[in-house]
Design a protein that fits this description.
168 residues, alpha/beta, Rossmann fold, five-stranded parallel β-sheet, 44% helix, globular, binds 5-O-phosphono-beta-D-ribofuranose
Length: 168
């Protein structure tokens, strides 16, 4: 799929440019699997008006999932989820002070009625959020489904083909 000419189906947002080191792992998976996406810095605390605008326009713009990464007092995923019917996938960014436990608890402990699907702290969580968003789209996008199937098959064969960890 030529992503340049296709409306984004997944939004990847983060609270700060400093989150990019983590969130690039979500974007890498979306690119690998051919998922049309967009990437933005949207801060719950520094740009609250932008947050509202992004959340309220997301569904009408065709987004089918929003991957939201934030660290520390990580309100971004929950606030997005409060203002859009689009499923929000939260990625806790590893903070300096508390290693991301603050981010994880801020994102995962949502009150009943406003769900955020919360992933692991850091790069693994971001990568899995990208894969999860692709899986959400796969039933309606045969090319994404085929790419996801191929990714998983290669992941499996990479392990089975190299059973001895002492060998390269
Ligand atoms: C959060 O504060 C961001 O998501 C980031 O993880 C954290 C620190 O932001 P910076 O001070 O590095 O911009 O809002």
């Amino acid at each position: 799929m030529n992503q340049a000419n296709v409306a984004p189906r997944v939004g990847v947002v983060m609270g700060s440019r400093s989150d990019w080191d983590t969130m690039q792992h979500a974007v890498a998976r979306l690119e690998q699997l051919g998922v049309p996406h967009e990437v933005r810095v949207v801060s719950a605390h520094r740009t609250p008006d932008l947050l509202v605008e992004y959340a309220k326009s997301a569904s009408a713009r065709g987004l089918r999932a929003i991957i939201a990464g934030a660290g520390g007092a990580a309100h971004l995923p929950g606030m997005l989820a409060s203002m859009t019917p689009v499923p929000v996938l939260g990625v806790p960014v590893q903070s300096k002070a508390l290693n991301g436990l603050d981010s994880l608890l801020s994102i995962v402990q949502m009150p009943a009625g406003v769900p955020v699907a919360t992933f692991a702290i850091g790069a693994a969580g971001a990568a899995n959020a990208g894969l999860f968003a692709a899986a959400m789209l796969a039933p309606d996008h045969a090319d994404v489904r085929a790419a996801l199937d191929a990714f998983r098959a290669k992941q499996t064969s990479d392990v089975l083909d190299h059973p001895d960890p002492r060998q390269p």
